[in-house]
Amino acid sequence: MAVQLESLVPDDVEPGGDGVVLTRLANRLVNRIPMLCRLKTFYDGKETVPTKAVPRNMDVTSSDIYRRFVDICPMNLASTIANAVITSEKPTGFRLVSDKAIRSTAADDMWQKSGMNLKSLNMLRDASVYGAAYAQAWSTPNPAYISRLSPWNTVVSDDKSAAIVYSYDADEGTENIALYRLVRDDKGNVTDVYGRVARREVESRTLPTDSPDYEDAVYELANDDSKKKPSLPALFEWVGAASSDGLDFARDCGCLPIVQLKTATGRGQFEPHLPTLSAIDQQRFQRFCIQEMQAFKQRWVSGDLPEYYTKQDPAVKANRARAGEKIDYSSLFELGPAALWLMPKDAKMGESSVTDITPIVSAANTDIKQLAGASGTPLSILSPDVSGSAAGAKLTTRMLRLKVQDMNERANDAFVLLLRMALVASGQQSAADERFETMWQPVETPTDLEQAQAANYVKGLLPVKTIMRRFLNMSEMDIAEAMQDLQDTAFATALSQENTLVEGKTSQQSAPTLQDTLDSTSTILDLNDVLGDETLDSTNEVT
């Protein structure tokens, strides 16, 4: 029996209608918020061990010490696991994949104009931390054709036919949910893309965000089990009717204006390992407690100790006490560098023994090794004191390389789709059917010497542009600039030789003319020998 769904827009309850679709996606966003809070808390190193671990029924000073241990015990391995992937993902540009057209730099131009050099890195970070990243294409270049969206505010349906974006306007005192949907014909072709906005008046935003202004609320929701997750009331109203204005570029590309980049499982890089990370923090808390207790050992005095002062006691004779008063042993056995204790006859001293914390440290190290293997993170990153051979280090980084390559392939689809929509929105209609490919820096960036050696090995076997692209990791714009420099150098050389001839400084042998010199440099500019099927005119067109 299907569960009745309460639409966030009470006036729109039609099955499959905009109100129901918006409600389903909004509920998915709300249900994900507690986990997003926990992921951000672990990534920031602000997680705490359960407050139940703090001993109760103790004085205020001791309780404060234990609570300080709760604050400082996190080891923050979560950010290390995520950053190992994030810092290895570096897009360098795009290239047009076509056998009939010249390599184009228009994609690189659009990428830079939209500020995607930085936005793409933020998207890759979102995907590694939260499991998904989002961006939206717009029809106007101001402020940019592409903008990054937060996974705290955005959800895309599984079939990518609908998406919502939550926002809060503090000036207007409203929170809005923008809905985007595709319309398909009987053959599955996209015939329209439209959007509409649902709004309600509020005093403050309902859903938290990863903004620094809301960090305290996020940490509290993640660390306090008694806190309830937020919820959206069914008080929204549609603002106007659905409209397709400004979404023609999305229709032409056959997709939503919102693009989603997800990991293989839809989870962050360290999300499956949260229990292990919590266990490591718990062990550190216990170790801190043991070390603190051992730093201030418990001592005691045993024996037949008198309860009251007598006339023969030194304290009475020194007028520091009176006979018959009760003896305060806490004042007698005060700690101090030069403290002397006057012990009663036959009294014996004792102190607590040292607890060996080696098993706890060994267990924590074992957990870190298992965490490295389970998360595919090189142990040398999580535990810098690990040593080994270069071959062994390369073997241990294999899983990391595979994870980065997997993320690059998934990111390629999202970035290319964003690029197509941005190019179409800018007036380049043919880009909707073009094939683009994202260029990436190697996971393990080679040195300049290694790149030069690799290029030298394939010299004469592959065209110059191919060597620049694959072995020197140059973008299409860099290649175009290098080819222009190559032409300028050849022309300058020919011109210099011609000037030498004019000035009469040549040898007795007949000197070549300018035209002959240019012809002799054709080996540099010849398309058949150097640039493959591309022509000199096409090279000029690129630049």
Could you characterize what this model shows?
- By secondary structure, the protein is α+β, with helices and mostly antiparallel strands.
- 44% of the residues lie in helices and 14% in strands.
- A 5-stranded antiparallel sheet has the order 4-5-6-7-8. Strands 3-2-9 form a 3-stranded antiparallel sheet. The chain has a two-stranded antiparallel ribbon with strand order 1-12.
- A hairpin with a 5-residue loop joins strand 6 and strand 7.
- The C terminus is likely disordered.
**Helix-residue proportion:** 40-55%
Distance between the termini: 64 Å
Count all strands and give the number: 12
Number of helices: 21
* Strand percent estimate: 5-15%
Poorly predicted runs of 5 or more residues: 388-392, 520-543
| Strand adjacency order, main sheet | 4-5-6-7-8
The whole-number mean of residue pLDDT values reads: 80
* Major sheet: 5 strands, antiparallel
Shape: flat
Rg, nearest Å: 35 Å
**Class by alpha and beta content:** alpha+beta
